[in-house]
């Protein structure tokens, strides 16, 4: 089984590519949504966050206060590194279990959607990367609209991610003009040819 990362910075359109792949019958592990589930269910993560960032990071229902954490970490590389050090090992375990199950189910390919492949220490679990690319101006517009953020806030989030703008053989351009489905089909043919 091949594990393929769908990488690309915030606002590049990874979720659009993921949605198309799901419609085509492929399974996708969305690191963002899975990390949220893991964070809310893991007592180990909650203890680590409380120790590192204080009581405001967990609400009265025992759920992570993401708005508070976001304010704390996005302008503070040291705090972001601490947060990642608490969360990423648990997400890695979750992904390992997910890939084990998907392999047992007989999948030939599975996809992992992530904006922070390098930072999350998942690179060694990946066989191939598909980089989803969009121009920076378009990415900023998308995230401002989607997350109701200012341009300054979006640029801070982009800056907190390592660069993922490298075009590769398996890049998918999501610029609002270029058709995405033919690019996905081309990539699938390329990897099936390599088997």
H/E element order: EHEHHHHEEHHEH
Distance between the termini: 10 Å
Q: Specify the structural class.
A: alpha/beta
Q: For the record, what is the CATH homologous superfamily label?
A: P-loop containing nucleotide triphosphate hydrolases
Q: Which residue ranges are poorly predicted, with pLDDT under 50 across at least 5 consecutive positions?
A: none
Give an account of the 3D structure.
The relative contact order is 0.22. The model has no long low-confidence stretch (mean pLDDT 89). The chain has helices spanning 14-23, 31-41, 43-53, 66-73, 77-104, 136-147, 151-160, 181-194; strands spanning 2-7, 27-30, 109-113, 128-133, 172-173. By secondary structure, the chain is an alpha/beta fold. Helix content is 53%, strand content 12%. The chain contains eight helices and five strands, in the order E-H-E-H-H-H-H-E-E-H-H-E-H. It starts with a strand and ends with a helix. It has one domain (2-194): P-loop containing nucleotide triphosphate hydrolases (Rossmann fold), CATH 3.40.50.300. It has a five-stranded parallel sheet, sandwiched between helices.
List keywords for this structure.
195 residues, alpha/beta, 5 strands, 8 helices, Rossmann fold
Brief description of this entry?
The chain is an alpha/beta fold and 195 residues long.
Summarize the SSE layout with pairings.
Elements: E1 2-7, H1 14-23, E2 27-30, H2 31-41, H3 43-53, H4 66-73, H5 77-104, E3 109-113, E4 128-133, H6 136-147, H7 151-160, E5 172-173, H8 181-194
Parallel strand pairs: 1-3, 1-4, 2-3, 4-5
Helix pairs in contact: 2-5, 3-5, 6-7
């Amino acid at each position: 089984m091949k594990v393929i990362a769908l990488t690309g910075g915030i606002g590049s359109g990874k979720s659009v590519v993921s949605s198309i792949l799901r419609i085509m019958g492929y399974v996708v592990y969305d690191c963002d949504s899975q990390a949220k589930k893991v964070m809310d269910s893991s007592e180990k993560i909650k203890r680590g966050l409380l120790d590192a960032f204080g009581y405001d990071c967990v609400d009265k229902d025992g759920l992570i206060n993401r708005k508070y954490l976001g304010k704390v970490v996005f302008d503070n590389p040291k705090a972001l590194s601490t947060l990642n050090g608490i969360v990423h090992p648990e997400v890695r375990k979750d992904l390992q279990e997910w890939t084990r199950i998907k392999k047992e189910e007989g999948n030939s390919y599975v996809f992992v959607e992530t904006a922070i492949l390098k930072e999350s220490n998942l690179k060694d679990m990946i066989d191939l990367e598909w980089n989803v690319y969009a121009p920076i101006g378009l990415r900023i517009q998308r995230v401002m609209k989607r997350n109701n953020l200012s341009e300054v806030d979006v640029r801070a989030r982009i800056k907190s991610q390592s660069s993922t703008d490298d075009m590769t053989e398996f890049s998918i351009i999501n610029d609002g003009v270029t058709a995405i489905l033919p690019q996905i089909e081309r990539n699938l043919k390329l990897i099936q040819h390599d088997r």
